[in-house]
Specification:
single chain, alpha+beta, five-stranded antiparallel sheet, 5 strands
Length: 109
């Protein structure tokens, strides 16, 4: 029996709706965090400051600024789209980091 192949539309990398946000892992406990601006980091992706691609390098530089030790390990840029005016990561990897696993754990016996 042949299975229908599922096709998906690739992310619109050059779309004006595509935004950039900065993420990394909090140094103290490894939790994924997002740069919210003004030196503040949040574990909630909806609070991430988002910019157009042309402003992404400046946002990353702002996130990396400050006196060491920095609160975040290896911050980097990711692509996001706005949903209900909040950034939502485009890649599956970043979606899992932001919102948790894609499956539920089996109930204990």
């Amino acid at each position: 029996m042949a299975h229908a192949q599922k096709t998906s539309t690739p992310p619109a990398a050059a779309s004006p709706e595509t935004r950039r946000i900065v993420t990394g892992n909090r140094l103290r406990d490894g939790v994924p965090v997002y740069f919210a601006g003004d030196g503040r980091w949040s574990s909630v992706v909806a609070e991430a400051r988002h910019v157009a691609a042309a402003e992404a390098d400046a946002l990353l530089a702002e996130a990396q600024a400050g006196v060491p030790p920095h609160p975040v390990v290896a911050p980097y840029l990711i692509e996001a789209v706005l949903r209900d005016h909040h950034p939502h990561p485009l890649s599956l990897r970043e979606e899992i980091r932001a919102f948790g696993p894609t499956v539920q754990a089996a109930p204990a016996l």
